[in-house]
Design brief:
The protein is α+β, with helices and mostly antiparallel strands. The protein has one domain. The protein is 42% helix and 17% strand. It has four helices and four strands. Helix 1 crosses helix 4 and helix 2 runs antiparallel to helix 4. The two termini are 14 Å apart. The model has no long low-confidence stretch (mean pLDDT 94). This is DUF1488 domain-containing protein.
Length: 106
């Protein structure tokens, strides 16, 4: 089965991460990694209720990290960790994180 996460910043700035050869990340570890990054970057809940859905956390962390973390080879390890964590936490093999639209698609 195909396993890929794509982070889209614009029509010309699209960063796919192939997860086929990556060791799957356990769901609880994926959620813990996203929680750590959410706190590290000082992300705020998107919803007025203060509830943070996993998809919201994925969007917030990607946005706070910035495009350079996905584009630059120096940050490739972090970007791949993000891709593995987001895919496992969302429990979907193909995920698109569309930052201009603030959506997560499956």
């Amino acid at each position: 089965m195909r396993s890929q996460l794509t982070v889209k910043w614009s029509d010309t700035a699209v960063y796919p991460f192939d997860l086929e050869e990556q060791q799957p990340l356990p769901h609880d570890q994926a959620r813990a990694w996203l929680d750590e990054q959410f706190t590290f970057f000082g992300c705020e809940p998107i919803r007025l209720t203060g509830k943070v859905l996993t998809a919201d956390k994925v969007l917030s962390v990607a946005q706070a990290a910035g495009e350079a973390r996905f584009r630059d080879p120096a940050h490739r390890a972090w970007a791949m960790a993000f891709a593995r964590a987001a895919s496992a936490a969302l429990a979907k093999p193909v995920v698109t994180v569309d930052l201009p639209a603030l959506t997560v698609g499956y």
